[in-house]
Amino acid sequence: MASTMRRPTLIAVAGAIVLLVIAFPALVRLATDWYWFQAVGFETVFLKSVATKALVGVGVGLFAAGFLYANLRFAQRGLAPLPVVLSLRSKAPTVELTQLLRRLAGPVALGLGFLIGASATGAWLTVLGFLHRTPFDLADPIFERDLGYYFFTLPMLRGVFGLVTGLTILSLVFVLPLYVIRGDLLVSRRVTIEPSAQSHIGGLIALLLASAAANLYLVRTPSLLFASPEARFFGASYADLAVQLPFLRVAGVVALLGATAVVWGARQRRLVLTLAITVAAYLGVLGLSSVVTAVVHRLVVLPNELARETPQLQHHIAATRRAWGLDQVEVRDLTGEAQLTLANIQANSGTIENVRLWDRDPLLQTFGQLQEIRTYYDFISVDDDRYWIDG
Question: CA-CA to 47 of 20 to 30 Å: which in 159, 187, 255, 272?
């Protein structure tokens, strides 16, 4: 009895030591940051950042682990029609691979959830910006969205869609081999999928397509207003707005219709056919978008670039002037006919006393013309200053 209790205890102690060794550098950095923030009187800033990181990491990690575990368990429901039995040695007991994978579903989901949650802590500032977002009360001239959307909401949506897409793809990576091992998915001359497996795989692919459609409308389309590789200014170019924008909208519609078609195909036992058509249509629209955009930029924009990009340049200049407050500058023409009076000199005595007595450029030229005929003189620069000599 003592020997059976000793082994789990040793494993737990060894695991605790390994975790402590791994976490020790992070704990040292955390303590150093705490003492620094405490020294400058910003403990609340430190505590809020740490609390936000912890909440984001735990929340994302639990969501990821739950999502992966639910898909793994759903893929292993019921009895396997064609179970795979392993035997390591001739006299050793056999192990059913499907049962082993069922036991590993929880640890694998928790481990991946921990890694995903730990990587998500870096987005804590994005989450805080989204939670405390404020409107700019100024809309962009293309999509007429408040500028606060691009600073606070867009980064958050990009992270959310990236998380959903990544988890869905990861689930497919695990689920497809599981169905192959169970015998629910057979690949020979034709792909044969068991009906419930079709529904599961179709649901994941439909979620992937729906996420892609939402990402195209809420993230990719607004992101056209950021720097374009073809434009000579910051913002959407003529080719982006005239070609790429319509194609992105069409691709979003194709992705959304494709999600519906995949669900219908899974119910009608035609998942492979509908999936092939959907993927070909979606990738075809995106590929055609890149090709047509490049062609329009080269054949339509470049021959008359100034005329094509004038509206976008006007938006760029107006935004730059507003950002630097130059739109509030009062512009007046000076004729230069004002007469300098003694009152002007007395009112600006600080400026007058600091006026240069010599102009450096003509002075350097003069010294060069007078002295450089002697080969041992070479004037590189000249400096002037004021010196008081006998008052």
Answer: 159
